[in-house]
Every structure is written in structure tokens, then in C-alpha cells.
Amino acid sequence: MPARRPSTRWLLPLVCVGLGGCFSLDTAVFLNRGYTDDDLVREEALEGRWARERDVDAARLEDEPPEPVLSIELADATSPCFRVTFHEGFVSDMMMAKPATSAKLCTFRVSGQTFIDVTRWPEGIDVEAMTLTWHWFGAVDVSSDELRLKLLHPFLVADYLKDHPLDLPNVTLENGDDKQIVVTAGPQDIQMFLLLHLGHGDLMDEEYVLKKLPPPDVAEAGDEAQD
Predict the structure, then answer these.
(1) Are the C-beta atoms of 151 and 84 separated by less than 8 Å?
(2) Cα distances (angstroms) measured from residue 74 to each of 68, 78, 135, 150
(3) Alpha helix (H) ranges present in 41-153?
(4) pLDDT tens sequence across 176-225
(5) pLDDT band per the 50, 70, 90 thresholds, residue 64
(6) Residues in Cβ contact with 86 at an 8 Å cutoff, skipping those fewer than 6 apart
(7) What is the pLDDT of residues 81-96, one digit of tens each?
(8) How many CB atoms lie within 10 A of CB 63?
């Protein structure tokens, strides 16, 4: 029986400073975005509050509204990117960031597949914390009411690049006995890597299925009507 891949819920050391600068030495860190301006798409169906599918199903039985795990909103009317806020459920499942942490989420499309690039908001260098922005990728399939998310697993990427260092441009930073793989690839190489390993299914975490919740005012109106 093949060994079960480590879950993304072991990502706690990766995101201890709001998606910037603090990460486990066992992971691969992507320094560059995975898209060019021409690759960006505005995936409007992502906007809204999202709850775990199992919580929505349970709420129907218990007549209790489910809690959102992600909130996604347009951050700027002129930009195709979003602001995503991680709530308690997502933080618990993935063991990343802190509740109410917000980040920048951009969607780009390659060969018909939509991917997300999640990074600190705003991007760049945090001079006070002396940290750089890094990027976290995933594949998404989204409809009007369902979001299926597969995240690229940084631990698995690190193990893969140790065995196949020429498959993606990277450097290894050494600090005594500790080594950190830093992926220096540009968008085109990152996109090819994502497509290849999404197809193989070897470096992606388990699918995370979410259901869209109604806007808060609609949900409250429904509760009042029931009362």
C-alpha cells in the first residue's frame, strides 16, 4: 500500500507571519508569481462566503447556519484579483495563518484549467518584519455554488525537487545543517509544473470541497421568515 501523502494541514510553520517570510525548512518556497498579466482572469464565481461541504450538509439536518471557512471579495474594481480571508475552519483544517488573516488571491488560466496564486497583501518586502512575499498555488474548479480546490503541497514539492532538481529552477540555501529549497522559476515554468503534476496527481493535496453560502443579509432574512 503506498504511503499516504502528508496533508496540507501540516503547513503551520509555513505561514506564521501572514503569508510572508516564515516557513518550514522541509518545504519548497516559491518566490515568484505563477502568472503574467495576460494570464489573469476574473473568476467572479469565487466571490462570496464559502463553507465546507460537510458543514452545509450537517446544517440542513440541524437547522443551524454553517460557518464560513473562506470569504472572498473583490479588492479593487480595476483589478481582477481578490482579497481572501481565512476563517477558523480553514485555519484548523490547513493549520496555516491565523483566523481573520487576509491575503491576495489571483486567478489565472492555463490550457483551460484555472489556478490560484495566493500571497501576502500587499506583495513585496515587509521592511519592518524583514520578510519577502512567497506564493502558494492551487487548482480550482468553481461554479455558482461549489468550489473544488486542490493545493500544491510544499512538502511534496520539496521532496520531489531533491530527487529532480532540474525539473524546476531552484536554489538551495544552507544555514549550517539546515537547507531550504527556494523555487526561482518564472511564470511559464511554474505553469508547466502545475499542469504536469495536477495531471499526475502526485504533488497536490486532497481535494477540498466548499459550498457557497448566501450573503449575510439574505441568510438573516431567511432566519427571520422561519421564526
Answers:
(1) no
(2) 17, 9, 19, 22
(3) 53-62, 88-94
(4) 777 889 999 999 999 999 999 999 999 999 999 999 999 876 555 454 44
(5) confident
(6) 69, 70, 96, 97, 98, 99, 100, 101, 102, 103
(7) 999 999 999 988 876 6
(8) 8
The residue type found at 2 is: P
Q: What is the pLDDT of residue 176?
A: 77
Report which residue type is found at 84.
V
pTM: 0.83
* Three-class SS state of 50: strand
C-alpha distances in Å from residue 7, one per residue of 4, 26, 47, 94, 106: 9, 14, 26, 8, 23
pLDDT tens for each residue of 111-146? 999 999 998 876 654 444 445 578 999 999 999 999
Listed residue (224, 210, 223, 222) closest to 89, CA to CA = 210
**Would you call 54 helix, strand, or coil by DSSP?**
helix
Q: Taking Cα atoms as reference points, which of 90, 53, 85 lies closest to residue 210? A: 53
Three cell numbers written together for 43? 473568476
The Cα–Cα gap between 118 and 111 comes to 20
28-30/178-183 β-pairing:
parallel
CA 133 to chain centre: 14
Cis, bond preceding 122 (omega within 30 deg of 0) = yes
